[in-house]
Amino acid sequence: MKTLSVIAGIFMTSAAAMATAANADTPILTVYTYDSFVSDWGPGPAVEEAFEATCDCDLQFVGTGDGAELLARIRLEGSRTKADVVLGLDTNLTAAARGTGLFAEHSLTDVNFDLPVTWSDEMFVPYDWGYFAFIYDREKVSNPPESFNDLIASDLSIIIQDPRSSTPGLGLLLWVKSVFGDHAPETWTGLNRHVVTVTKGWSEAYGLFLEGEADMVLSYTTSPAYHLIAEGDGSKAAASFSDGHYMQVEVAAKVAGTDQPELANRFMAFLTSETFQEIIPTTNWMYPSVTPKGGLPEGFETLIQPAKALMYSSDEAREIRDVAIDEWLSVSSN
Amino acid sequence: MVKRIFKLTRPTLAGGLALTLVLGLITGTLLAVGLRAEFTGGFGPSDWSAVRFTLLQASLSAMISVGLAVPVARALSRRSFPFRHLLIILMGAPFVLPVMVAVLGLLAVFGRAGMVNSALIWAGLEPVSIYGLQGVVLAHVFFNLPLATRLILQGWQDIPGERFRLAASLGFSTRDVGRLLERPMLRTVLPGALLVVFLVCLTSFAVALTMGGGPRATTIELAIYQAVRLDFDLGKAAYLALVQMGLGLTAAMLALRFGLPGAGFGAGLDHIARRWEAEQPVLRVIDTALIILAALFLIIPLSMVVWNGLPGIAALPTPVWVAALRSLGVALAATAISLILAISIAALSVLNKLQVVGSLGMLGIAASPLVIGTGLFIVIHPLADPALFALPVTAMVNALMALPFVLRILLPALTTTEADFGRLADGLGVDGFARLRLLWLPRLRRPLGFGAGLTAALSMGDLGVVALFAAPDQATLPLQLYRLMGAYRMQDAAAAGLLLLCLSLALFWLFDRGGGARA
Question: Do residues A263 and A316 share a domain?
């Protein structure tokens, strides 16, 4: 009996919470995104407050795993999904996302995106972006590598993420592929000598790096900004590679079957607004896709500026992904 | 017909219902995932190597954990010293920690920058790398040695003190005690202990990958995750999950084949055994050394968790505390569900002498958590908002995952109780709930307390399916911990890990103590 009442209790509390939101006659906009976006320490709470201040609506985030899990969730739910907008896919996923037929074209016109690549896509709207990079501690690594070959020739150790379970992990795979093409397997043979371990996700890898398990970790060029701005610690830096740096562009899209098309359009427009873009740099620790008038927060000017931005188109990325994973597996598994 | 096979009593009915629920959840979710799929491709070579690696690491981990647990449990069973009970409780801690927290603690000792390697470098020796199969096994031994020790220790405690007294009066040497008392006991306990550790390691994923140092250490669960997340190939996920469960089932059948129903020491008067045969200085030294080594192996990494978490604990943000409360609720609900299921299934198994029932109840641990979660999602989503069910579903799945442990603990105890007192109870006509209240609950307090403690603590630390279902404001403590890590806040995450460790241990201690454990 006790069990039943406990379960009933939990059930009723959450039901009551939902009911309050539904009773008030405001329209609800449901946005699916990845988990770290909605966390108390991500952009979610500030974005919700800012949008609700203008929309006369209830913005509800649903968070799930990372970008790839987000797409899997949408595919699982199919046309029955409650989502009005999906926020948090990246260019490695958009080809597959487009293929589901679940997304609609956006209604945005003449937005000037501040991306290192030209962007035109009638379905996916970029809201932030970043470069992958190896992060190191200035106090421990005195001469950081300036290219992949430099890294291979050095005696530095690195921690990377598994491309099968992690977005940055897949990013590194495509980075190596875009620089070395058919010679990627040889590069991986060289890199693997430096790999301490491969983790499931970014958090584990970054945590191990901070514990001193390796000299460098695969992350983003913007990672040092967190330590500098939030912790006042200027010791972390990204190694700038002359090969160029692979980019990740994070996008959002309107769900075709939305019951709130107007509100969804407004939210899509809000994503490129000054308000939203000002929230991004110091909560998601990525570059805003439209630089706010006030510029980037103080501290971002210390970050490295890659000379060359690398990125496959979404169709290329989808095509190359499986080949690159197989190559990596066969070189790394023995 | 049915009546002739089963005595259709209330316990049988409850047991049947419980078993149906468990099997229904496991196979139903698998079916739901499988049916959603268009089967795209068969097994590639990488899938087979995942199966091979899974089998290798799980077998090795089980054998080494249990192999080490036997001498440690024997040492603990025949020595008493201050804080012995506290040590046994603390030893259970690695098992209930979220894996990444425990791995960070482990690496603080054995990692590249860890204590062991720092000492080696200081001494002018070559540092050793922990990453590889040795790392996977080390981590799994770290998680499972305490559990195996507890399970085997229980076996020693179930030998009535009178038998040891008799052995002493007959002038038994340690070898005689080993041959006539301990080995028959181990023969009944070891297959179950091996099975449990094997099953725990079967679904390992993040630990195996991180400690294994790379894709060589790909397990089936990682392949399932890849199939769902990257390829959205649900057919393959279901197929892989089936293979994983097949391995678990095979292991369970083997354990059943080689296990014996009970050593048949008969009932005693519940004295604590005094071990005359072991009162030799040499044995005393060996036992002391064993206990100290095991304690150091488990407690040093844990103290690293405490050390890293302590500075941030006072400043933990409010959402973490709220999540901690939510996790407590889930853990208590999971404990209640799991105890009810376990007693029902154990009753069905023991009263009808159907050992296979007990083994089926243990399948939950071989099921892929990801497939169960996804399957439940597929089933619930068309009917209702999955977020509404996030916490109840999490409690349910946690109960299911803990059920095998509770059954493992409960089954031998109930078998013994029924063998010793069953006929008396039958003769007195004590049946149904009266039997539960008057015979089982009093006799099973200790295993029930241990099982409840284990379930509560496990559920507390499990990230589980909540990540798949929860709305942003429904995060449990483990989920908040991962969110903190994802937001660069490693200091806060370490503090949340410490909070989790304390809460899990407190729950474990309360229940175990409530069970009157004299372990």
Answer: no
pLDDT of residue B265 exceeding 70? no
Q: State the pLDDT at residue A61.
A: 93
Is residue B362 a contact partner of residue B26, using CB atoms and an 8 Å limit?
no
Q: What is the DSSP letter of B30?
A: H
CA distance B81 to B431: 42
Residue B477 and residue B498: Cα distance in Å, rounded?
11
Phi and psi, residue B243, nearest 5°: -60, -45
Q: How many CB atoms lie within 10 A of CB B57?
A: 24
| Interval B64-77: pLDDT, tens | 999 999 999 988 88
Residues A97 and A56 in one domain: yes
Cβ burial A179-213 (10 Å sphere, 16+ → b, else e) = bbeeebbebbeebbebbbbbbbbbbbbbbbbbbeb
Which residue range(s) make up the domain with A82? 2-129+248-288
Q: Which residues of A touch B228 (CB under 8 A)?
A: 72
> Does B113 sit within 8 Å of A212, measured CB to CB?
yes
- Name the maximum alpha-carbon separation found in chain A: 67
Give yes or no: residues A321 and A193 share one domain: yes
Shortest distance between the Cα of A249 and any Cα of chain B, in A, equals 18
CA dist., res. B343 & res. B18, Å (int): 9
Instruction: Give contacts of A185 with chain B, Cβ < 8 Å.
Output: none
Number of domains in chain A: 2
pTM above 0.90, yes or no: no
Beta strands in B406-480 (DSSP E): none
CATH number for the domain harbouring residue A84: 3.40.190.10
The string of DSSP codes covering B43-90 is --HHHHHHHHHHHHHHHHHHHHHHHHHHHHHHHHHH---TTHHHHHHH
Task: Name residues 131-150 of chain A within 8 A of B (Cβ).
Answer: none
Please tell me if residue A334 touches chain B, with a CB cutoff of 8 Å: yes
pLDDT at A238: 97
- Indicate yes or no: CB of A195 within 8 angstroms of CB of B214: yes
CA distances from B369 to A121, A184, B16, B71, B467 (A): 38, 35, 23, 33, 12
Query: Which amino acid is residue A287, in one-letter code?
Result: Y
Size of interface A-B (CB pairs under 8 A): 188
Q: Look at residue A217 and tell me if it is in a domain.
A: yes
Asked if the Cβ–Cβ distance from B104 to A165 is below 8 Å, we say: no
What domains sit in chain B, N to C, each tagged with a CATH number? Answer: 17-31+48-304+312-514 (1.10.3720.10)
